[in-house]
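Researcher: Next entry in the queue.
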Amino acid sequence: MRNKFKATGLGIALGAALGAAASVILGQTGLWLAIGVAIGLVIGGIFGRSQCPTCAAVHKTHKAES
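Model: Structure for this entry, 66 residues:
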């Protein structure tokens, strides 16, 4: 669970940075910052779902037992 939060936080930070850079270039700071954070949430969510092979094997056994 801890890694998911790290991935989400990293995604938000990177998205905010990209949004800030786009806002400097294109103007409309609030709009581009919000778009950057939203994109960062999506990216963080995608990276937070990935599991190592060991964790994936353990979760398969949990699903089989249920």
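Model: The two ends are 21 Å apart (CA to CA).
Researcher: Noted, moving on.
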